[in-house]
Design brief:
Glycerol uptake facilitator protein; Alpha-Beta Plaits; alpha/beta
Length: 458
């Protein structure tokens, strides 16, 4: 029994040596270095300007490599660690000084980013920008563990190789620049989301520094009575809880969204992705306060009404209660080719029969003038088209007047026109195939008999 106890005690001693972080700690150098690094002056000023502009360019170009470079030279970490360390050693003056320098740094970086995105000719919401507008509980974990690694690295006598990794992981400068993008473009949802991510990173890096300083038992700058210390801790922990609550809510929403996405994919794969039909895209839209709609874009054989009713009825079996199906059928490729061929034949026949063509033009002109299309519906259709055709670079809709002068009259036909520009990643044959589908889709949705597709002039 004694041997077992002795072995267990030896194991605990060995484990303690493995996880011991007190060895190699240099309290004095750590505190002095942080106090000297928090000020935004000299090299730190230029590091901030350069890192902010680098991050803005990386976000603008959607370049991860450039953004990582900006993270490595950002001086934001010093003042944040300074706040945590000063709070941990009861240095109230040092904490207030660190908070002041951090606020100045954030304001200057925000101003620089706003000016950049106000002047840039690009300024589109890239994937790198959108990735920083919905912080979750996972970002709290990144900030916390990154902060722990950062403060431990700063307490070592030797320069640690972990410092660059901490700078990349905690990613302080990109959300600051995304917040500037939100201000420059008037996209306040982007601004608040990115600024909240910056706040999460800053607060929990500081909290990690505070905790590590307490564990390492840094010498206190001043001693305060236990009652005052207790009040400080209550305020501190309450502030952390308030900061973390929105991230929990967002994280829960992402989990629910991922669950619904898996349920919808399961429903589609088992019921619609067959040999004679294929779902090319789908999305969920909110309809009113409670009802949600699953909009599905389907290519293939037409579904009979009873089949659609059957699909609607089995949604609860996939956990999709309260969802309504909206199936947009694009038709089969053979149908689309047949329709195009038929339209060409009709055009030739009309050209050979001038009188019939004049009557048809007048009828179309009268019909188009009498029909007023809801601009919001057109906007929605264009958004739908871009959703399942990401290769479209530019897309617009307009009426173009086509004038034809005859000996006895002048006919003006207001022709519905779809303006398009494709990216270079899609070849001509694929363009024609997709345009045929879009042609039928718009005619069906707007209930029009004719439509022309025109390419933007390059």
């Amino acid at each position: 029994m004694d041997s077992v106890y002795g072995g267990f005690k030896k194991f605990l001693l060995t484990l303690k040596q493995f996880v011991n972080i007190k060895e190699g700690t240099d309290y004095v150098t750590c505190i002095e270095d942080l106090r000297g690094s928090i000020y935004l002056r000299g090299s730190n000023f230029w590091f901030l300007i350069c890192s902010t502009l680098l991050a803005c360019i990386g976000l603008d170009l959607n370049s991860s490599a450039v953004i990582i470079g900006a993270m490595l030279i950002s001086p934001l970490m010093f003042s944040i660690l300074g706040i945590g360390v000063s709070a941990g050693i009861n240095d109230e003056k040092g904490a207030l000084l660190s908070i002041r320098e951090f606020a100045i740094t954030v304001l200057l970086g925000l101003l620089t980013a706003t000016i950049y995105f106000w002047l840039t000719p690009l300024g589109l919401p890239t994937a790198e920008i959108l990735a920083r507008v919905k912080p979750t509980l996972l970002d709290v974990g990144v900030a916390l563990f990154g902060g722990i690694a950062g403060i431990i690295a700063n307490t070592r006598k030797k320069v640690s190789s972990a410092i660059p990794g901490v700078a990349i992981a905690t990613a302080l400068i990109p959300p600051l620049c995304v917040a500037g993008f939100g201000i420059a473009k008037g996209m306040w949802e982007v601004f608040f989301g990115a600024f909240y991510l910056l706040l999460i990173n800053s607060v929990f890096i500081s909290a990690a520094a505070y905790g590590v300083v307490k564990v390492l038992r840094f010498p206190l700058h001043e001693h305060i009575n236990p009652e005052k210390e207790k009040k400080r801790r209550i305020v501190y922990y309450a502030f952390l809880i308030i900061i973390i609550i929105p991230s929990i809510y967002i994280f829960y929403g992402i989990i629910v969204e991922a669950k619904v996405k898996n349920q919808v994919n399961s429903f589609l794969n088992q019921n619609l992705n067959k040999e004679n039909s294929q779902v090319i895209n789908w999305r969920i839209q909110q309809k009113g306060d409670t009802l949600k709609e699953i909009k599905i874009y389907l290519v293939g054989d037409k579904l009979p009404p009873e089949r659609k009713d059957s699909l609607q009825g089995i949604l609860p079996y996939y956990g999709l209660d309260g969802y309504n199906l909206d199936i947009r059928e694009m038709g089969s490729s053979s149908d689309l080719k047949s329709d195009i061929t038929q339209e060409i034949m009709n055009t030739i026949e009309q050209e050979n029969q001038i009188d019939e063509r004049d009557v048809e033009i007048e009828r179309l002109n009268s019909m188009l003038k009498s029909r007023t299309l809801d601009s919001s519906k057109i906007t929605g259709l264009l958004a739908d088209i871009r959703t399942f055709n990401p290769e479209i670079r530019k897309l617009g809709f307009s009426y173009i007047d086509q004038k034809e002068i005859r000996p006895d009259t002048t006919i003006i036909l207001r022709m519905p026109t779809l303006l398009m520009e494709w990216s270079e990643s899609i070849n001509n044959s694929e363009q024609k195939e997709q345009e045929a589908k879009i042609y039928e889709f718009i005619k069906q949705e707007l209930a029009i008999d004719t439509l022309q597709i025109v390419k933007y002039a390059k």
